[in-house]
């Protein structure tokens, strides 16, 4: 695991902890890296990982086999898409979306918005995504993405525009930050948005 990725997981875990949340849903949990961090924290008594990729889910089950066996019922893994408006993904105090939004085709972002912010409505959502402006420092060519599975990578202005629009439309307050070594002009390698639902 890269240093940046472990920084991301640590940062998201600390933000979820600081919120006081006891139930967390990881939307796009991949191979379960964040869930492994969350299982280490007794504060989180109910966890769910949602992942569309069957391969990712198998990897998550393998990674989390021991802690799941030690505490049956604490963590549930579900093969599904977070574009689905499903009631089973409601009633979580907090949610995480770590490096997953960029894997969604741009044409489906409105479905994500309606499902996550309109249907699930967690009290807190912490989201991270690559900062495109930083890519030259990774020796990437103009227009080249960090992963072949990415449909897009946003610059900071675009991410703010999207996040502020989502927050305004669904009754959330959003603040922005970053993870990793900050460049004076290019920002952080990872962008972070924290959405808090307004009562």
TrEMBL record:
InterPro entries, per database record: Hen1, Methyltransf_25, SAM-dependent_MTases_sf
Domain of life of the organism encoding this protein: Bacteria
Signal peptide start-end: none
GO biological process: regulatory ncRNA-mediated gene silencing; RNA methylation
Keyword RNA-binding set for record: yes
Sequence ranges assigned to domain Methyltransferase in this UniProt record: 24-123
Cofactor(s) of this protein: Mg(2+)
Catalytic activity: small RNA 3'-end nucleotide + S-adenosyl-L-methionine = small RNA 3'-end 2'-O-methylnucleotide + S-adenosyl-L-homocysteine + H(+)
GO MF term set: metal ion binding; RNA binding; small RNA 2'-O-methyltransferase activity
Pfam short name (any one): Methyltransf_25
EC number per UniProt: 2.1.1.386
UniProt keywords, alphabetically: Magnesium, Metal-binding, Methyltransferase, RNA-binding, RNA-mediated gene silencing, S-adenosyl-L-methionine, Transferase
Family: Belongs to the methyltransferase superfamily. HEN1 family.
Protein name per UniProt: Small RNA 2'-O-methyltransferase
Species the sequence originates in: Aidingimonas halophila
Lineage: Bacteria, Pseudomonadati, Pseudomonadota, Gammaproteobacteria, Oceanospirillales
């Amino acid at each position: 695991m890269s240093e940046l990725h472990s920084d991301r997981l640590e940062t998201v875990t600390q933000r979820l902890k600081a919120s006081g949340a006891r139930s967390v849903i990881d939307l796009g949990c991949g191979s379960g890296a964040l869930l492994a961090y969350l299982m280490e924290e007794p504060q989180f008594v109910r966890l769910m990982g949602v992942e569309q990729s069957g391969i990712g889910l198998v990897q998550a089950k393998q990674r989390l086999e021991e802690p799941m066996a030690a505490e049956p019922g604490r963590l549930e893994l579900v093969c599904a898409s977070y574009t689905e408006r499903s009631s089973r993904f409601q009633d979580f105090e907090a949610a995480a979306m770590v490096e997953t939004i960029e894997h969604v085709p741009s044409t489906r972002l409105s479905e994500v918005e309606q499902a996550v912010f309109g249907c699930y409505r967690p009290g807190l959502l912490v989201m991270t995504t690559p900062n495109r402006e930083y890519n030259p420092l990774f020796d990437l060519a103009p227009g080249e993405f960090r992963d072949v599975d990415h449909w897009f990578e946003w610059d900071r202005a675009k991410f703010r525009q999207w996040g502020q629009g989502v927050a305004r439309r669904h009754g959330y307050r959003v603040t922005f930050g970053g993870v990793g070594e900050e460049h004076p002009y290019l920002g952080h390698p990872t962008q972070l948005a924290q959405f808090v639902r307004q009562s």
